[in-house]
């Protein structure tokens, strides 16, 4: 409505981030769908890595070899690494979902300004604007 427009233009002039500068519910809904999809993919990947590790551990071949040649254990190590990364991503995405629920999604935790939509579409769990990230 017009009230939002007025506070927004005031915002621009003073350049002070206020709590009213947040993503619209429509935008939040779009981000929610994107994050839900990424979450499903990350969970599927995690399952795949876990199953692959289980299969390698259970395969008669690994028992015969005793994984002595190191290829098996290196592969399990790699899968474990990938699984760990997926778990971390899942935690980040779930936290992003909470921020959407609380309508604070997309607000830079350092500057309080809105993180540009393009950055969020690329990295939906981002909590820092590029400026804040570069300044670290």
3D structure, described in words:
The protein has 136 residues and is mainly alpha-helical. It contains 6 helices and no strands. The radius of gyration is 22 Å and the shape is elongated. 14% of the residues are buried. Residues 1-19 have low confidence and may be disordered.
Task: Explain briefly what this protein structure is.
With 136 residues, the protein is mainly α. The protein contains 6 helices and no strands.
* Number of H- or I-type helical stretches: 6
Describe the global form: elongated
Instruction: State the end-to-end CA separation.
Output: 37 Å
Largest sheet: none
**Helical content (DSSP H or I, runs of 4+):** over 70%
Output the radius of gyration: 22 Å
Unreliable stretches covering 5 or more consecutive residues = 1-19
Q: pLDDT average, as an integer?
A: 84
Order of helices and strands: HHHHHH
Question: Which band does the percent of strand residues land in?
Answer: under 5%
Structural class: mainly alpha
User: How many beta-strand segments?
Assistant: 0
